[in-house]
Amino acid sequence: MRFLSLLLLLTVGCASVSKGPTDAEINAEAVKAYQEVKAKSKLSTNAEWKAMLDRVATRIAKSSGENFQWEWMLIESPEVNAWCMPGGKMAVYTGIMPVLKTEGALAAVLGHEVAHATRRHGKTQYARAMKQNVAGIAIGLATVVGGQIFCKTNTCKQLTGLGGAAAGFALQFFNMKFSRADESDADHYGQQYMARAGYEPSEAMTLWDRMSAANKGSAPPEFMSTHPSDANRKAALRQWLPKAEELYSEAPQKFGTGESIN
Question: What is the value of pTM for the model shown?
């Protein structure tokens, strides 16, 4: 998907290489990496945006049905960026907020990122890295603008400065991406999560008009990217909309597109 997901830098021993990593092992390493990222990040003091993130993340986490140890933070940065690590550790960067324009669009972003975690999209890459005896691995990838990883961003600089649990990143640093199938799967389930959480699911489609405008037409052709094009993404979301609207109609509370982002 296009929401720039942070490359998780996790270190692991080789004791369980033969059987592959368990969810518990992956999540434990994610916690260590998350805490290091958090310690090295400037957290936003925007009370309005923090309150919005709190309520949206709480609702999306609940609607996902996963019993993760959920946690989230709002990072002060101009990057158009949001991500969710395995086990439910999330971050939103302030640079994405003006692009989203509505609380409902934030729900679409978080729904997609949470779906990457709940659907275990990074687990295959993690297991492959362990089998290759790679000490540090990178999972949980998605990009926001242009379907690429931009290593000139503060995120890239931040990651290269990590130590301890997040130090190793030998496996194609900032190159690995989810497959198109995984990205579409995250779109599909993310739209359902936002609908169950009480947000109008059609806002997931409108979001891509805003992302295209923010991208200023610089996205690569779809055949050159693992990420579906904006047009194909919108078409798929429109196809799934009836089911999402059904889930929305059953939501105990309905917030529509929520508050505007100023």
Answer: 0.78
